[in-house]
Amino acid sequence: MLDLYRTIVRPVVTEKSSAQYGTLHEYAFEVHLNATKPQIRTAIASLFDVEVVQVRTMVQRAKRRTRGRSHGRRPRWKKALVRLRDGDSIEIFEG
Fold first, then answer.
1. Which end of the chain has the least Cβ crowding within 10 Å, N or C?
2. CB 52 within 8 Å of CB 84
3. Is residue 94 a part of any domain in this protein?
4. What total of structural domains would you count in the chain?
């Protein structure tokens, strides 16, 4: 089992994700590729002291990258959308 700080890699803060946590109380995180929904739920609940209602996950595909003559790929990564109960919030996203 992954530890809590390896399960959650980083928060994803974009225009779309900020609109989601403003209206739906959904927060986006980059998580470890092997993390499961129950592991993500317990990690978010214990790290931020909130109650998680729903967890949805998706694997973002790898993208091609070109710099001059060299070609490469960005790695694939897993995104988790976490919905909290009404009244709970995560302070990283606020402000």
1. C
2. yes
3. no
4. 1
Q: 7 with 35: CB under 8 angstroms?
A: yes
Task: Report, in angstroms and rounded to the nearest whole number, the Rg of the chain calculated over CA atoms.
Answer: 15
Rounded Cα distance between 54 and 3, Å, is 20
Q: What pLDDT band is residue 45 in, cutting at 50, 70 and 90? A: very high
End-to-end Cα separation, the chain, in angstroms: 33
CATH number at residue 58: 3.30.70.330
Structure token pair of residue 80? 């988790």
Rounded to two decimals, what is the model's pTM? Answer: 0.87
Q: What is the bridge-based pairing of β-strands 26-31 and 52-60?
A: unpaired
Tracing tokens 């002291």 back to the chain, one arrives at: 49
